[in-house]
């Protein structure tokens, strides 16, 4: 490289200025979109709870959304996986229609009672809106990758109110075992600013009270490690089950709109039989898990409802249902491990997500942002263990394996025979 007569730090200033501008624009777009989305979710959730009969229309709602995607959304149906693929191998700008389609699809899913989340929608909106800046600023492929990562970070941060976790999520989710440090500044700026934009619009995020902590001792660490194994296995089971359900529906039902029609009918019948505890975001149940014992089968109920909803084609995300599954599972494990309900609920909240998404660093930071710094040591341990025990699958099919999670010792058959 040809030497410059200016110090490296001087040459860095245009880079900082450029990405501060771009990240600020991404934050404004993504934060505003997420705020509108969260307000819409709050409204439709309240309406559904006061008009429970609407759940019987879930099959028709699923058919309508499936038909719309079939007609005008086939190029963006891959959702988060499309964004990850475009970061790995940039091809063309993500169509703008992805944002309104996933927004409408998710709001409809929640209005009529599907068990889906919200992260997928916010991330897709953030990435799509960010990518619209590519032709405007004539960005190269390498710069477009960074732009998309910043959009993912902004969407995640603004929908959960966790700016640091959102920034790391955008860096960590692309590949197991690797972080893209070339995007660290844009992702940080976009995530922090998007969170501020959301709050400026009046967004208020749920507060989870961490009412009990225990000192770090041998026995508490051993209990947390044991819980991490369970959380990782459940995260792996969720990812595999969701993919299996989706694959089963695609193999046996060729006409796409019929998949959510059938899935919606099954979910509606299950709600008639079991009640509404396992549909929607389930925030009240998550809060309850931090405060008192909940039914030990709650995590199974949410697991099955969410796999059925997402596997049949309803739009939304996986992360908030994973929070529900983790918090209620942690609540169920607390008496067995002799740890406080709130502590195990908080650890399960982030660890099942860490295992299912293969994002232990973002999940650890999220725990600190949501529950306070005192949970940091336990959160780090439980998220890493869950990450290791979840294997190399995950909820995002396009996530690649940069480095394997661990190196197993060679088996007897792998070893070379001794030299005589």
From TrEMBL:
Its domain of life reads Bacteria
What Gene Ontology terms describe what this protein does at the molecular function level?
chloride transmembrane transporter activity
Keywords assigned: Membrane, Transmembrane, Transmembrane helix
Q: What membrane topology does the UniProt entry give?
A: Multi-pass membrane protein
Q: Which InterPro entries match?
A: Cl-channel_core, ClC, ClC-type_chloride_channel
- Gene Ontology annotations for the cellular component aspect, listed alphabetically: membrane
Q: Where in the cell is it found?
A: Membrane
Bilayer-spanning residue ranges: 21-41, 53-72, 146-171, 183-204, 216-239, 260-279, 336-357, 377-396
Q: Which PANTHER family match?
A: CHLORIDE CHANNEL PROTEIN CLC-E (PTHR43427), CHLORIDE TRANSPORTER (PTHR43427:SF12)
Name recorded for this polypeptide:
Voltage-gated chloride channel protein
Q: Which organism is it from?
A: Duganella aquatilis
